[in-house]
Structure formats: structure tokens, C-alpha cells
Amino acid sequence: MVNSVQQRLTAISEPNRFRIVELLRDGPRSVGEIVDALGLGQPQVSRHLRLLAEAGVVEVSRRAQQRIYRLHPESLRELSDWVQRFAVLWSERMDRLGSFLEEDDRSPDETNQQGD
User: Fold this and answer.
1) pTM of the full structure
2) In this predicted model, what pLDDT tens digit does every residue of 10-23 receive, in sequence order?
3) Which of 37, 50, 95, 116 stands 20 to 30 A from 56 (CA)?
């Protein structure tokens, strides 16, 4: 799983490929629509789409002479699961910080009364 997550993150990290993923979030698009939306040349867009497909981020189907690209939901779910593991870590750390700050906010009188 880690290798596929790393490959997908690497693919998405390039700014134009990130923009393509953002475009496809709204639904499938043809190569021509992506070219028009990004203002890039067709060869550039095709290369970016090929790399995203190799990483499993997008999938392609043919409709007549067009190639239609859409996000591959399973690969994005895998990325989400990976990120979620870090969200749990941060949540635990924030809870500990909150507890620490609550203890620190107690007035000196409260601390002295507990020691009596």
C-alpha cells in the first residue's frame, strides 16, 4: 500500500496534474476539455494524463474518437485512508495539548488547595 500511495502522491504533487485531478473531481472530461480548461498543449495534457493513469489516479474510457478520463475512486479512497491515519495522530496530540493547557490554566490557588 505504501508504494502505491507514494506513487499517487508523487503523481498528484506536480501542479498541472493536481489541476487535472481538481478538474476531474467535478466529473469525467475528454482530453480536449482538459486542454481547454488548463490552457496547455494537447501533448502536455496527454503526458500528464498518462502519468496519472499509470499511478492509478485516473482511468480512461473511449467514446467514439474521444478518450474520457475520470478519477479512479478506489485509489483516492486509499489516499484518504492513508491521510486519515495521520489525522488520528494529530487528534490525539491536540487532545493531549488541550489537557496540558487546562492543567496549566488552573490558578495557583487551585494547585495549592489540591496539595493540602
Assistant:
1) 0.71
2) 999 999 999 999 99
3) 37
Q: What's the CA gap between 73 and 70, in Å, rounded?
A: 9
CA-based torsion, 72, 28, 7, 93: positive or negative: negative
Q: What is the mean pLDDT of the chain?
A: 85
For position 71, what pLDDT does the model report? 94
